[in-house]
Write the structure tokens for this entry.
Amino acid sequence: MNFFYNLLAYGTLPFAVGRIIYKSFKLPSYRERIYERFGVVKFPQLKRSIWLHAVSVGEVQAALPICFKLREKFPEIPIVITTTTPTGSNIVQKNLRPNMYHSYLPYDVNKFVTKFIDHVNPVCFIVMETEIWPNLFCNLYKNNVPIVIANGRISPSSYKNYLKIKFFMSKILNKCSYILVQNEEYAKRFIDIGAPEKKVRVFGNIKFDIPVPEDKIQSGKELKEKYFGKYKILIGASTHGEEEKTLLDIYSNLIKKNDKLKLILVPRHPERFNLVYDLCKSYGFNVHRRSYSLVPEGNFDVYLGDSMGEMMMYYAMSDVAFVGGSLEKIGGHNVLEPASIGVPVVIGPNYFNFQEIIDVFKKNNAIVVAKDKFELEKEILNLLENKDKRTNIRNNAKKVLDKNKGALSKTLDVVSSILDKRI
């Protein structure tokens, strides 16, 4: 099986490179630092390191608190963070501290993986959620590097696929030291595909331990107070495709009833910033682009959040948040960010990426879920006009967050116990 996997890894390499090049036509940053995907690293060779891998934005946001806590406890050990996407890379680079390094994860080809491992010399490898790479895991295991899957989850589709190759997955998962998962269902799925039961622990979801960046929150509140004091603010965050059009249609209808309303739009992908700007202009709206200046000049209808790493600031400016990826079949995005700073959240019907979190929120009346774009407009209007409802949802969300915190400290205890024995 290892032979066939390696044959497949080499055989699909041209397609993987082609995919990067294809994506780079829309987002040029995909072709930047492409050499890193082949295990070539520009930062100095490290004698030892703590290595964390987080695929993209959501995983990075869960990984960064772990990084910062480990940096406090083990300041002498460099921390290496790898990502797969440019958006994840962007956030990591903005949060790097002294003795922290970043690279893209190399393709799962033996030659590239071993080159990277030899360069960073990890004493522990932490991978967020469900990034199971056979060559990477095997080479780490050969080098006696403990492997920790943190905040583990397996989607239904991945579960079905992994079950088909359980005999292979079992060998890979046996190389892990710990598999720390979000809930009992994920624990069952990991065990079903071959993970040793004794290595699987249910710790909860690290994302509930979301850090609140006080500087961003303060900036957002100051902007709101100084420039939008008399307005209600609706934010469309992490939006995709038709979601901007839907929100602009809704906004057009709402301002006919209430002209004391402003819209913040923050598309999920940077390559769509210009497209969304043109879309807003096609509606006849005056648009202020964050990339031009933080503070809006003159009158505007839509504030386009075409920047990275400032979502919490945008949320702090807002009265109601629509979190995107939920009207389209994307699976939704992180609702915990707006909830953590007291912004009531409304989403569409597609939230399978955050199923467990949304289920808990729904059960506790801490979120509004609209079944389609028509209901979305009614729910947004209801939230904007009903202060008591906003307050109830805000308070309920705070209770949910407070009740579900703790996964971060448990994860840190496990990783620290490994590091204490190895340094």
